[in-house]
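> @MW can you paste both from yesterday?
MW: sure, first one:
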Amino acid sequence: MERTTIQKLLAEFVGTFALIFIGVGSIVAANFAPGAGLVTVAIAHGLAIATMVTAVGHVSGAHFNPAVTIGAWVTGKIKSADAGLYIGTQLLGGIVGALAIRAAIPREAWLGVNLGTPLVSGSIRSGSAVLIEAILTFFLVWVVFATAIDEDGAFNKVAGLAIGFVILMDIMMGGPFTGAAMNPARSFGPALVGGFWDGWWVYWVGPIAGGIIAAVLYDSIILARREPAAALEAAPGE
């Protein structure tokens, strides 16, 4: 059943809000509670995405990420007007999610982690940070295309599980170096609400570049080969 634009945008808003609220909340918790750390943060982000993709993937496609939407737009999987609305809604979800954390948690708890705003480690150069974010987002968008966009993919079988897992594995690798945002909305919301803008452009350039490369490769090589193969199979019966 085709969903209305309002339904799709509500799904994108709630999904992105959940990612920010749970993701930022886990970072604050890891800083606040003894024993919590990188694994806690990775699992929280992965579970938030897995749960929300499973819940509303059938409504909006469950992008929750401008890099995913741009990848879908570049490959013609979403119309330009819808892509713009999706991205605006995702950024709004990121802002409101960060505002909710700021309102709910004492300032001294979130201030020490810059309201969960991803930051480039002092040992990593900006160019390397962009590369890390691009590669991590490549994996994410590749899995989104393979499981949610490819009609022959495993979306109906595993729903958001694979997408949640790729978020989890990416954060466990990239978290200490760049924060492993993989998502401009994930960085923009906390940066705007908390006022922490160091290296903000890394979290736009890297994810968008990686997302486009993954989308174009999957669409042009894997998806594009399906039609010729189908035509060859049909030919003998004609």
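MW: second:
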Amino acid sequence: MATSKYSAGIHAANRLLKSMPEKVRKLYLDERSKNPRLAALKTRAREMGIPTQGARSHRLDDMAQGAAHQGVVIELTDLPNIDEAALRASVESALALGRKPLLLILVGVQDPHNLGACLRTAEAAAVDAVIVPRTRATGLTPAARKVASGAAEILPLVTVPSIARALDWIGSYGIRRIATSDAASDSLYACDYRVPTALVMGPEGDGQHK
């Protein structure tokens, strides 16, 4: 699952400049646009010492890979790779300190917009990490980053070769595993999250497999 180094969109740019300017390497702005919001972004970035560069619309289209860039594409600094071993170490440390990890496991999400929405919601819900399979799932594309509105730069996204094996070791730590379903009788919001929990969400359409 390849990771893109670009995000796109005015909202994403504003949030990154406000909350995570150290993750912004450069802004590419539509050189023909008269949009005052883009001009404000350019001024703000330069005041922060972040380079800006004019670009033709077709080049922005290429970098954004289909995302609605609104005249701005953000080049991100290299993000650290987070692997399964690092996640296990983080979970072990949290449990040893008495913390209650909250994990989100996404099984086979194909739509980058859905991945971005899951990341945005997970970050707002104080999820500690999101786990996804290495294959048969969408990557962290510019479209996913745009919908995530900065959450993709905050929240650890961990790719694993096998969701089943990850669920096994997560359960071995005493972390409660909950599979979600739109046909379930119990509400997700009624769960007690004062205990370590992993929420498992299936892909669009066919949902969880038994």
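> thanks! Residues 84-201 form a domain with the Alpha/beta knot fold (CATH 3.40.1280.10).
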